[in-house]
Amino acid sequence: MSQTVDQPENPESPTGLSRRHILMGGAMLAVAGAAYARMPKRRFQNIDDKTFEAMFPKNFGKWHTLPSSELIMPPEGDLTAKLYQHILTRTYVNDAGQGVMFLVAYNSEQVNNVQVHRPEICYKASGFDIQDSKPYDIQVSKDQVIPARLVRAERVSRAENIIYWTRIGDDFPQSWTQQRIAMTKANLEGFYADGLLVRASVIDNDESKSIAVLSSFLQELVQNSPPQARYIAFRA
Known about the structure:
The chain is of the alpha+beta class. The chain has helices at 19-38, 49-54, 78-83, 119-125, 176-188, 207-224, 227-234; strands at 41-42, 63-66, 86-94, 99-107, 129-141, 144-155, 158-168, 191-192, 195-203. Strand 6 and strand 7 (158-168) form a beta hairpin.
């Protein structure tokens, strides 16, 4: 007796693909295309080293530069190279002999966990105790206040008072959480935000005096920086 073989309800096409497979494939391509279209794009072009260094004047007003021997630097390694395309360090001193240590770090593209490190991390890694860290609005010009952060770090007999801010895209987040939100916001708007850290510090036990010196320094720096630096660092 011959045996009857049931035929499938949806016979395959000559190419071996059923109609269902073709429809599923088309849907997956549509989803992939939509995801690609929504993928954040680079917004800012890289800045070459010479241009970046020239953005921040070596001498201005009553301030001039000295060798940067005492700055606390970001941890070395491959991650630092990904975090920052540029790290500029200087020590400035004024006519009264007051010194300010200055660091600015920049990357044109913030992606996932490769983002600006907040200074509390670097100081802790260098053996400092963070005695205080709080939001602080810095008046950098008559018309502009930048949301920054005031930090006091101590190690043995050294007390360092720090004012810093981070800029992610057009935002100035004062905390790690705000920084992540700023990155997400930029991604939802369709681009990768650039990221910048500006940090100025004074070694002095007198916190009030240090804040006054740092505020004066940053105000003069903004006033004497070229337009590109004012936009990159201060959005001014």
